[in-house]
Amino acid sequence: MSKSSLAVAAAAAAIAVTALSGCAGPAGQQGAKAAAGQPLAMVGLYNNPYPNNIAAGAKAAAEEDNSPFTQYGPAGLDPNKAISDFQNAVASGAKGVLVMAYPGDLWAAPINRAADQGVSVAMADVYSEKSKAITEVGAPKVAMGAALAEEYIKQIPEGTTGVIIPGLCVAGLRVLEAPLDGFRMRMEEKRPGIKVPDPEVTAGDPAANFAAWQRIAAKYPDALGFVGACDVDLPNLIKLKESQPGAKYLTGTASGGDDPTAVKAISRGALVGAVTQRSWLQGYVGMKLIANNAFRGEKMPEGWINTGFDIVTKDNVDSIMKFLTDPAAAKAEYQTLGEKLVADAQKIAHKPMTYQNDVASINEPTPAP
Hints:
Blueprint: E1 2-3, E2 5-6, E3 40-43, H1 49-63, E4 69-72, H2 79-91, E5 96-99, H3 104-116, E6 120-124, E7 135-138, H4 141-153, E8 162-168, H5 174-190, E9 194-195, E10 200-201, H6 206-219, E11 225-228, H7 233-242, E12 250-256, H8 260-264, E13 273-276, H9 279-296, E14 303-306, E15 310-312, H10 317-325, H11 327-343, H12 345-348
């Protein structure tokens, strides 16, 4: 999940979901060819800037085929409601749907049923490995954490010793652990005197998350810094540091950079940086691939398409804010890259999709706009 991404997925710990079985589909999902101009849709897992920006990119792609576009998704993280919305989109005649398929096992059966009906499905940010949807778009999670570590390293002299404490809003969730793995590996490579231990568990609820960071800061009063993996960490780490005048420790988040309200506070300098996962680009590339499959019969690429990420710092926050708040600015910045990724999709798709969260992807390059 952008908590990555799904950073907001912290709430998942509180959700009881019933796993549905679904058989794996054929290697090359092929939607039944439909006439361009028919409905397309996107289903997010919750309502916040990250999935909303994905939807904005998907809508821009749909408009290129004069296709009606509908964004679905629950207000808060609720996979069962998201799946119900997905089923409603299919029942309403959507010929292609972009989904945030978390948790993957739960999504396999509904995706497979839709694929069997000729609906083209691709996934954004998270994937359902056992489903017939064979294409996912998103950022390389381990590389995101490594890039954030580079920003910390700029402020840490060689020879420094100490600890940087990570926080994890959902213990054991691989999509959130991966950026912290990348952060740890790069930090201990470049600054071997600094250790990054196993993460402390925080929370997905904003108030509980802030209380957790207060507890962690009190537990490690001599820490060189703290690093979060979830969207909710960004404003709370800023709040934590600004509530302690004179605090010298470093803070940053491996997600959260797609929320313009939270990102704006980075300009005050309390945060080393945050990661934006180019959410508009994810939506645009995912929906273009769907439209090409649904309307032109082009085969879906098999694997993960790296749409990249950017580190938001106080030096570039104003320019990145434009892409987060103005879909026209995001289109001007990312459409050309999106078209290139779509054109090259068959040769750049990485198999398996699990590579996105594999430590082997730590040096995966980010495509340049």
